[in-house]
Each structure stands twice: as structure tokens, then as C-alpha cells.
Amino acid sequence: MPVHITDPPSDVPDKVKTKLHEFAAGAKFSTKALRGARADQLDLSTPHQVFTLGLNDITSGAGLAAAQPVGWRFLVMSNGQLVASAETTQAPDGTEEASQFTEGPFVDATDKALHELRKLAQLETAGFELRLLRVSALYVMALWLHAPATDLLVPLAPSPIKKDNKPLPPAEFFADLAELARASAAPA
Known about the structure:
By secondary structure, this protein is α+β, with helices and mostly antiparallel strands. The protein contains five helices and eight strands, in the order E-H-H-E-H-E-E-E-H-E-E-E-H.
């Protein structure tokens, strides 16, 4: 894969996997794919750190420097097939705890984007680190490919940025976000 997968803190994958297996064994999932999965077939892959930006960060032009780390995200595999994602959040004591398991379009879009990124020869030598950027106020999630010299952002469908799975330079991505922010603030 043309992007570097960063290892989360050493205890995080085990905590998430334990919670995932507990939920599966106890039939606690309400979503279809996870509800139908067997605990012994569930595994985690592709860890990436999650960052957020608020609407004020977008309107002030703060950019990626304002992105705050809020946890880790893993892709959840069942018998080798992607079925969901798992996320952590920081507990009051500073440790990471499993906070949610989700299915749906952003999970599918992540898988599709990763497959597309594997085809891009220009990413092979850049050494990008895989991250996730969330701008909840605008319903935007993007894969964030971070490298010391440059960044690229890949909006995930369904996105109001109509450039799904296309790597964008930060200037273009943030111009689109600023336009969305202005449109959301305009009176109806």
C-alpha cells in the first residue's frame, strides 16, 4: 500500500478487539453486518488516527494545523471482508477506550478510497501517513494523507464535496469547505 499505517498505542488494538468480541458474543450489535458476524471471525485492520476540525476552524482559515487528535479508527473485518469501523476516544485518564462501532457509507467509502490510492504511483515514494479528518458540522470525512512536505485529502462519500476518492491538495479541500461553511451559514 502506498501509505504508511501508523501503529496506535500498544494497548489500544487489544482493548478494541476485546470490546468488539464482547459485543459480538453478547449479541449487542444492532447493525446488520456486525449482528450477523461471529466473534471468532472478527478482526481489526488499517489503524489510523482520527482528527477533527470545527466550523470555526474552517471559517477562520486555520487549516490542518488546527486539527485535533481525538482517537483511533480501525477497519473491522469479518472473515476477511470489511464490515464496519471501530473508533476509540480518550478517557478522562488519558487512555484510549473503544467508543463506537459503525457500518455504512463512510466505511464503504474508506475501503473504495484505499483501493484507489493503491493505484496511484505518485504515492509510492512520498511516505504518506494515513489519518482520518472529520468535520462534523459540515458532514465531511476525508482520508488525510500526511507527509512532512505535503498533505493530501480524500473526501469520503457521501460528501457535500463532490470529489469523492480524489486526492486534493489542502488549498482546494479547504476552499471547498469554506464554500460549504458559507452556504450552511446563509439564511434559508
